[in-house]
Amino acid sequence: MKKASVYDNVTKQFNKAADLMHLDPEIRKILARTNNEVIVNFPVKMDNGHIEMFTGYRVQHNNALGPYKGGLRYHPAVDIDEVRALATWMTWKSAIVNLPFGGAKGGIQIDPFKYSASELEHITRRFTFALGSNIGPEFDIPAPDVNTNPQIMAWILDTYLSTMPAHERQAAVHVVTGKPVESGGSIGRNKATGQGVVFTIEQWAKDTNFDLEGAAYFVQGFGNVGSWASRLLKPHGSKLVAVEDVSGAIANPKGIDPDDLYEYTQKNKGLIGGYAKAKPIDHETFLATKADIFIPAALENQITLKTAPMLNVKLVAEGANGPTDPDGDKILHEKGTDLLPDVLCNSGGVIVSYFEWLQNKRSEFWDLEEVDGKLHRKIVAGYERVRDTAREHNIDWRTAAYIVALSRLETVYKERGIFP
Ligand code: NAD
């Protein structure tokens, strides 16, 4: 079966908002396209001495607001369509939370679990080398995404710096964010996306007079975003009732302790499969879980024409990028399910990446209180802009989020004009 085009989803979302806000047709032409698309094929010597060829991508959607910014994904489904979509969402995301960044995304089409640590290091370093000056601290700044992590960012940093003249190296540490703290990363970056998801859920609860104490939630994906969001909701007295990852789904109506599950995954190759304190369930049962909040935090196109009717929740908080397609959106809206759209809900990652970038540029080191406090202010301000726009136009929150982003970009293009 042909993979559903995620970029088609972006285009539909974009057109809907652009029509509604009467986006200037000239500016619409610009934002409907990506600026640059880099595809690199590169060889890597495997542990057995043989050469394997890999394909990597970096798509730069728009940089009107600042340097391109966005994660790198290692996954077999990575292709130009997916990367294009993810890059475009990054432009909207930065605009919504008022960051001086544009949007980009990249990745390699591989199943990283098939490779040894040393092979992954060589693949990463050779990919960085192949990208060359297509990335840079003031030009395009990668970060972690699905199946990439601080270790991979450290290899990118080291490779990038090694190819520069010695006297320029220290000034380029902000070429990548999401680095380990010891290598110039920011405290609070690892949990930032999950923390942002929880901050937006808190705002939603406040606005709707919903008590998070005793609320039931379930989460798809228990990697960086899913595990952190789960664990950070726990202090509110909310109850995690089901979790799904690539190894399957599990449920316990009495509650699953997210910290305990996280400890388990750390000893189980990052997977939830085999966790004894919950019982295995199938995918359909998982989606139909009766709960207050669903946090998709895995991949795209999970909430669709087929699956949206199964959901039985008050709120979908999109930790993942693009988990809901336009059919799914329509159904959720008709059902009266509230939605915190990805471009707002998961923006905590890029917000703290921005803080890391700033700290590197200024040779500063902020403490967790400062990082979390600033993240809270930025994401809540973004939340309020989206909420107020949705109320003003009486529209769904995803379209409202797009209108916030597109209005900002429209203003900048009108002020600056088009060269020459
Ligand atoms: P990750 O690699 O740490 O975790 C991904 C999780 O999804 C894993 O638990 C994996 O088992 C699960 N998964 C994969 N395929 C699945 C499937 N078919 N069904 C169910 N679960 C599946 O990745 P992450 O960084 O947590 O990213 C998750 C999502 O959040 C992605 O959409 C990503 O683009 C988005 N996101 C990540 C960040 C970040 O800072 N890492 C920021 C913003 C958005």
Structural description of this entry:
The chain folds into three domains: 1-32 and 397-420; 34-178, Rossmann fold; 192-345, Rossmann fold (3-Layer(aba) Sandwich). It is globular, with a radius of gyration of 21 Å. Helix 1 (6-21) packs parallel to helix 3 (80-96), helix 6 (192-207) packs across helix 12 and helix 13 (368-393) crosses helix 14. The termini are far apart. It has helices spanning 6-21, 25-31, 80-96, 117-131, 150-162, 192-207, 224-233, 258-266, 283-287, 326-335, 342-345, 348-362, 368-393, 397-416; strands at residues 36-45, 51-62, 68-74, 103-108, 140-144, 216-220, 239-245, 248-256, 279-281, 293-296, 315-317, 338-340. The chain has 14 helices and twelve strands. The protein is an alpha/beta fold. The strands form two sheets. The chain has a seven-stranded mixed β-sheet. Strands 1-2-4-3-5 form a five-stranded mixed β-sheet. It binds nicotinamide-adenine-dinucleotide (NAD). Nicotinamide-adenine-dinucleotide binds at residues 144-147, 193, 220-226, 244-246, 297-299, 319-321, 346, 349.
Quick description:
With 420 residues, the chain is an alpha/beta fold.
Q: Give the N-terminus to C-terminus distance in angstroms.
A: 46 Å
Total domain count: 3
Report the β-strand fraction as a percent range: 15-25%
Strand/helix succession = HHEEEHEHEHHEHEEHEHEEHEHHHH
Helical segment count = 14
Rg over C-alpha atoms, rounded to the nearest angstrom: 21 Å
In CATH, the architecture of the largest domain is 3-Layer(aba) Sandwich
CATH superfamily of the largest domain: NAD(P)-binding Rossmann-like Domain
CATH topology of the largest domain: Rossmann fold
Q: How would you state the average pLDDT, rounded? A: 97
> Biggest β-sheet: count, sense, barrel?
7 strands, mixed
Strand order of the largest sheet: 9-8-7-6-10-11-12
* Residues in helices, as a percent range: 40-55%
Identify the CATH class of the largest domain.
Answer: Alpha Beta
Bound molecules: nicotinamide-adenine-dinucleotide
